[in-house]
Amino acid sequence: MRAIIDKLELTHNLSDEEFMALLKSASPADDAKLAQRARKLRERYYGKDVYIRGLIEFTNYCRNNCYYCGIRRDNPNAQRYRLTAEQILACCDTGYQLGFRTFVLQGGEDAYFTDERLCALLQEIKQRHPDCAITLSIGERSKESYQRLFNAGADRYLLRHETANKAHYEQLHPAEMSYNHRRQCLHDLKAIGYQVGCGMMVGSPGQKTEHLIQDLRLLQELQPEMVGIGPFIPQHDTPFAQQASGTVAMTLRLLSIIRLLLPNVLLPATTALGTIDQKGREKGLLAGANVLMPNLSPTAVRKKYALYDNKICTGEEAAECIRCLAARVESTGYNIVVNRGDHPNKRGTPKT
């Protein structure tokens, strides 16, 4: 296994057979070696810096019916909400004072938020905070919509592909959702000029090691600026309520592999990882991650954005959350910085 890890560090690639061996047979000692190599590589590009993104979960209405998601359209127990533009702007203002220089607007696929409404909001955020980046995470839209939002001020877009295997995608989503359209959206976003994030759930129902290898090949093909992965966690009001969660060990292994595969990628230690392990985010940073996404949403709505069960930090005020997180990060030997945290290939690149 040592030779495989050496090869991955040196060439940033493996054969399918080598990926299979690493994913299925790595020992705890191998995982420690992977993490050590991943940390070395992330420090080559990012030093000890950890970037924070202020997450604003602004709507939990969604037109989709994904089988794993607590805000799926047909969940009658979801307590629906939409933040007003004034509430969203207030979250950004608070976040700016706390040192955030990226705001992530995340929500379900909510038809209320038209291009017109979103463009006006993006323009106002940029007017108030011109030194900040805006990331959108609002699902599948047309290429024309993505272009309008980009022109209005959006810098980045997160759209998890969830799985790169078509049959597996169809196990996780209803028939009206299209694997091919999800892939096309990612390519459209890249073509427009966004810093693009994709990613998958680790341990989702029906996932095989072969699927994870396909996920890694998709990352090589797309060359995203960010990869967001986290363990699958069931939500009690979904068809997958009784399915087992993904594991910390496999999530950490994949974080390290992705860092070695895409050396300068922006790689979050996700809230889901912190949910299944009290020290999950710290372990993620020590496995090669360099981004955290604390919640800036109003505390009154955080429990309502219930994608999965037992989500952490639903009751903390933003200032309390960032103080706690800063201490956690320092315990790993890294430091939160006040910085937009752009991908190295996009720093100083004017939007066209």
What is the mean predicted local confidence, pLDDT?
96
Q: Supply Rg.
A: 19 Å
CATH fold naming? TIM Barrel
For the record, the CATH architecture stands as: Alpha-Beta Barrel
- How would you sum up the global shape? globular
| CATH-assigned homologous superfamily | Aldolase class I
Count of the separate structural domains: 1
Uncertain runs: none
Structural commentary:
The structure is a single chain. With 352 residues, the chain is of the alpha/beta class. The chain has one domain (2-344): Alpha-Beta Barrel (TIM Barrel), CATH 3.20.20.70. Helices cover 44% and strands 11% of the residues. It is built from 14 helices and 11 strands. Helix 6 links the parallel strand 4 and strand 5 (156-158). Helix 4 runs parallel beside helix 5. The mean pLDDT is 96.
